Amino acid sequence: MRWFVRGDLDGFFGLALDNLVQLLVIDALCRYVLGFDDALILGRVLPAAAVSVLVGNLFYAWQAHQLGRATGRDDICALPYGINTPSVFAYVFLVMLPVKLATGDARAAWHAGLVACLGSGLIELFGSVGADWLRRHVPRAALLSTLAGIALTFISLGFLFRTYATPVVGLATFMVVSLVYFGRFRFRGGVPGGLVAVLLGTALAWILGLAPVGAPPTGVALHLPIPVFGDLVEALGGGYLWTYLGVIVPMGLFNLVGSLQNLESAEAAGDRFPTMPSLAANGLGTIVAALFGSCFPTTIYIGHPGWKALGARAGYSWMNGIFLTIVCLTGTLGWIAWAVPIEAGMAIVLWIGIVITAQAFTATPRAHAPAVVLGLLPGVAAWGALMLKSGVRAAGGTFDADLGVKLTQADIHVNGLFALEQGFIFTAMVLAATTVQVIEGRFRRGAACLLVGSALSALGLMHGWDWGVGDTVLVSTPGAAMDAAFGYAAGALVLFVAPWLGERVARGAGGEHG
Q1: End-to-end CA distance of the chain
Q2: Which one, of 415, 83, 423, lies nearest residue 249 by Cα?
Q3: Are the CB atoms for 91 and 286 separated by under 8 Å?
């Protein structure tokens, strides 16, 4: 097991691009939505994000190297790691923006974000102790189908749209990626396919006028990370923790379960990493982010099978950490965004989404395919809700209950859509796990899965929602989604009494299909 192999270059280009997108989004949201100034963004948020990403990437590279030494293998791929995308949007719009609107103070909004980030990290750290039990007892279809729902929609479809918005760049680079990673094609001289795709995409973007993007930056400067203990203590005394507990707890659990699913994805690809230290390192990365001034949790990324198939091992991880650290500490992020548009490298990310979606079917028993499909649907619903909301905002519409009435009259049942959106990762797991148990004839275990869904709904971790400022918000108070809780309970009752009402017949007999 070496610290660097040629395939790490391909993995580095894809993972670094993914992380760069997160940094660009953070910069834009902090600057234009929250009103952060350069001193706060360049001097606090980005350097802290760099520290959190570097710490995690170095750990996961070391972890992969140690696993390779212990097993005598040279093909271990490090867990991909970076800033958690859902948490970025959740903490900006559900925590920091309400504080900014209420106080008019960007620094108060930053303090609220620090508390939310710290709370998420603590949940991830302490939750790592019992996460291995979940990993052993939750069916693989329930874990992988949830990832596939996210990969199919938030990754694949979004970048497919961008591909056809700029088809010359998009399709040309995607064919390069397809040649190398689907067709097992190798360029002369061993030039990495990811590098070829990015260089071709960048050249075409400049020729077509898609680049450069905006005005060139004015220069670079060194911004060293500095602990913000005083600000964090002040923030903890500001009452933000209790006020936004309903956002912090679900997002912390979301990150924990999402990272657990990504560990399952890695195992399905052949690399079994120990659960507790992998999740604990993730939680520590988030805590480090808050201690140095970032409001944005880190996570183990979707995509390990894709990076492994690229030939990435340990090197792509530590390279990514060092590269992003340089970008954040020197202010060169603006130069990269100016010269290399997202279109130049989006084919690699699109391919990753396709691989993850396919794995949900190929790495589970064939009979469990219906469970995988059902597990995909809540992710599709969450993505559809995002598209709906973005469309309403772009059109200048008013986002409130009156809009909900009009959409319902148009046969778009947004009450169900927004209920599915809230806590969709748990919903997907409950539905897929229940379906696996039913397929295997373990009806009362299926009933137990539905009772878990009932409990999560009753506690406010799924399906509770209300109209917010330009968006829906999760209502996580107990009793907020009792209709869903009673629905899951009714379904559990059906499965529980089923053994008394009839019996299973052999597959293909008695009117069953297939």
Answers
A1: 46
A2: 423
A3: no
Q: Which residue in this structure is represented by tokens 């030039």?
A: 191
- Side chain identity at residue 175, one-letter code: M
Q: Report DSSP letters for 321-376, one per residue.
A: HHHHHHHHHHTTHHHHHHHS-GGGTHHHHHHHHHHHHHHHHHTS-GGGHHHHHHHH
Give pLDDT tens digits for 45-60.
999 999 999 999 999 9
The encoded tokens of residue 31 equal: 């600057």
Beta-bridge partners for 83? 298
Q: What does each C-alpha distance from 324 to 36, 50, 174, 354, 510 come to in angstroms? A: 21, 6, 25, 26, 60
The burial of 512, by beta-carbon neighbours within 10 Å (0-12 exposed, 13-18 middle, 19 or more buried), is given as: exposed
Domain boundary among 362, 397, 422: 362
CB count in 10 Å sphere of residue 207: 11
Give the global pTM: 0.76
In one letter, which amino acid is 88? V
> Do the domain assignments include residue 514?
no
Range of the structural domain that residue 70 is part of: 7-362
Which one is predicted more confidently, 375 or 195?
A: 375
Residue 491 structure tokens: 């379904």
Structure tokens given for 311 = 């030939």
CA-CA distance, 15 to 460, in Å (whole number)? 34
pLDDT at 510 over 70: no
Helix (H, G, I), strand (E, B) or coil at 472: strand
Which neighbouring-strand residues pair with 496?
A: none
Q: At what angle do helices 424-439 and 443-459 cross, to 10 degrees?
A: 170
Residue with tokens 């805590």, as numbered in its chain = 287
In Å, how far from its chain's centre is CA 367?
28
Is 510 inside a domain boundary? no
The whole-angstrom separation of Cα 163 and Cα 129 is 42
Select from 314, 318, 304, 296 the least CA-distant residue to 261.
304
The total number of structural domains in the chain stands at 2
Alpha-helical runs (H) found in 209-244: 229-236, 240-243
Q: Would you say 116 and 345 are in contact if contact means Cβ atoms under 8 Å apart?
A: no
Contact between 203 and 79 (Cβ < 8 Å):
no
What type of residue sits at position 19?
Answer: N
* Structural domain contains residue 77: yes
Per residue in 137-176, pLDDT (tens digit) is: 778 888 788 878 888 887 788 889 989 999 999 999 999 9
Q: Tell me: cis bond preceding 212? Omega within 30 of 0 counts.
A: yes
Q: Which two tokens stand for residue 183?
A: 């067709």
